[in-house]
Automatic annotation (TrEMBL):
Record lineage: Bacteria, Bacillati, Bacillota, Clostridia, Eubacteriales
Ranges for domain ATP-grasp: 120-317
Source organism of this protein record: Clostridium neonatale
Protein name: Biotin carboxylase
GO molecular function: ATP binding; biotin carboxylase activity; metal ion binding
GO BP terms in the entry: fatty acid biosynthetic process; malonyl-CoA biosynthetic process
Enzyme's top EC category: ligase
Residue intervals of the Biotin carboxylation domain: 1-446
Function, in words: This protein is a component of the acetyl coenzyme A carboxylase complex; first, biotin carboxylase catalyzes the carboxylation of the carrier protein and then the transcarboxylase transfers the carboxyl group to form malonyl-CoA.
Glycoprotein is among the record's keywords: no
Pathway: Lipid metabolism; malonyl-CoA biosynthesis; malonyl-CoA from acetyl-CoA: step 1/1
Gene3D superfamilies recorded: 3.40.50.20, ATP-grasp fold, A domain, ATP-grasp fold, B domain
EC number: 6.3.4.14
InterPro entries: ACC_Biotin_Carboxylase (IPR051602), Acetyl_CoA_COase_biotin_COase (IPR004549), ATP-grasp (IPR011761), ATP_grasp_subdomain_1 (IPR013815), BC-like_N (IPR005481), Biotin_carboxylation_dom (IPR011764), Biotin_COase_C (IPR005482), CPAse_ATP-bd (IPR005479)
């Protein structure tokens, strides 16, 4: 096992990783930007190294500075968390070249799965169901229009190197397609430095269901069940739950085995997530693979009793998986709500500032993953998520009751948050009945504004 690990991240995920390392007797090195000097992760780690100014490009995306911090501190491995450099194949490759263990898959796998067009091609060759679409190179706008007409509207245009909801447009006719093609191409170039697009059939009103997988370096692989991630606003998840109430055991086994097949197709190692679109007729299609720990990983931990971060560390250090698929048992129900420093009354604009007062919920069946404290100043230059509230119950109904109670107790003074918005979701008939899809929140917001 590693003696010292550097965490190339900040906020709640950095704190989460530090805590796992501490319980395993592993020393930790935090990195921080100048604006994060007093952040909780810098206080909890055994060592902390400043890696640059506040803006991500100068600090948390600064590969040379992070690698230098790792070498100088004597850390043997780097855990990238999620976001920032976690799915950057160049960074993973640089780690290998510096003889530093990257806690995640090989850089080749990240490269394959990071390009959505390439990932789709690999899945299709491995008999993993994919949404009907076009895998080849799109020569120009005219060629793109021909492809769209052959597939049939509605069409989804997506950035091949994209993520986080960027570079995506939906078109229901030729006029919308031509406009969407141009804007998606420009956005892809601006966000990812790569304007390559791919085109596929748009599945209307789908559910977003993802399977958590773990794979060691010896070819052993398991899935840990699914997460229901359909509660989204502008392609960003707001609330997740596990398991999904639309899957019966037969379908869960089938999808889980296909998720494992998808991971094996790219010789996957460590923790990863296979994401599917699930339609009203119980058809499911591979959407993408996230080659990192997910924001919503705690709900899988709650229903399986498996600490995913600790398993990541064990796998990266060369240990074999300690369990087989038959050992994985799903028990109870878990829900996660993301708490963001944002103003729902003004188009969810970010609300950085000082947390003047803080009351954090607790009690049986409630978990809080966060890095905030009273007096903490939320920076303006990073993601607005400040906490994750996770509830667990023996049944879905019990998990919902606990989440309602926890969110009602959660008080953050000095900045606006989306806590009341999260509570409003829990009261809707659609959520209570589990009858919602990826369009639900946007439709709810339209009705509210009407």
């Amino acid at each position: 096992m590693f003696k010292k690990v550097l965490i190339a991240n900040r906020g709640e995920i950095a704190v989460r990783i530090i805590r796992a390392c501490r319980e395993m007797g592993i020393r930790t090195v935090a990195v921080y930007s100048e604006i994060d000097k007093e952040a909780l992760h810098t206080q909890l780690a055994d060592e902390a190294v400043c890696i640059g100014p506040a803006m991500p490009k100068d600090s948390y995306l600064n590969m040379a500075n992070i690698l230098s911090a790792c070498v100088l501190s004597g850390a043997e491995a780097i855990h990238p968390g999620f976001g920032f450099l976690s799915e950057n194949p160049k960074f993973a490759k640089m780690c290998r070249e510096c003889n530093i263990k990257f806690i995640g898959p090989d850089y080749e796998t990240i490269e394959y799965m990071g390009n959505k067009a390439k990932a789709r091609e690999i899945m299709k060759l491995s008999d993993v169901p994919v949404v009907p679409g076009y895998e080849g190179e799109i020569r120009d706008e005219k060629h793109a229009l021909e492809i769209a007409e052959n597939i049939g509207y509605p069409i989804m245009i997506k950035a091949a190197a994209g993520g986080g909801g960027k570079g995506i447009r939906i078109a229901y006719n030729e006029e919308e397609f031509l406009m969407g093609y141009k804007t998606a191409k420009a956005e892809a170039k601006a966000c990812f430095g790569d304007d390559t697009l791919y085109i596929e059939k748009f599945i209307q009103k789908p559910k977003h269901i993802e399977f958590q997988i773990l794979a060691d370096e010896y070819g052993n692989i398991v899935h840990l069940g699914e997460r229901e991630c359909s509660m989204q606003r502008k392609n960003q998840k707001v609330l997740e739950e596990a398991p999904s109430n639309v899957l019966n055991e037969e379908l869960r086994i089938k999808m889980g085995e296909i998720a494992k097949r998808a991971a094996l197709a790219v010789d996957y190692k460590n923790a990863g997530t296979i994401e599917f679109l699930f339609d009203k007729d119980n058809n499911f299609y591979f959407m993408e693979m996230n080659t990192r720990i997910q924001v919503e990983h705690p709900i899988t931990e709650m229903i399986t009793g498996i600490d995913l971060v600790k398993e990541q560390l064990r796998i990266a250090s060369g240990e074999k998986l300690r369990f087989t698929q038959d050992d994985i048992k799903i028990k109870g129900h878990a829900i996660e709500c993301r708490v963001n420093a944002e103003d729902p009354e003004h188009d969810f604009r970010p609300c950085p500032g000082v947390i003047e007062e803080l009351c954090v919920p607790g009690g049986m069946g409630v978990r809080i993953d966060s890095a905030i404290f009273a007096g903490y100043k939320i920076p303006h230059c990073y993601d607005s998520m400040i906490a994750k509230v996770i509830s667990f119950g023996n049944t879905r109904e019990e998990a919902i009751v606990k989440m309602n109670r926890a969110l009602s107790e959660f008080a953050v003074g000095g900045v606006k948050t989306n806590i009341d918005f999260d509570l409003s979701i829990l009261q809707t008939k659609e959520f209570l009945e589990g009858d919602y899809d990826t369009t639900f929140l946007s439709e709810m917001m339209v009705k509210k504004d009407a």
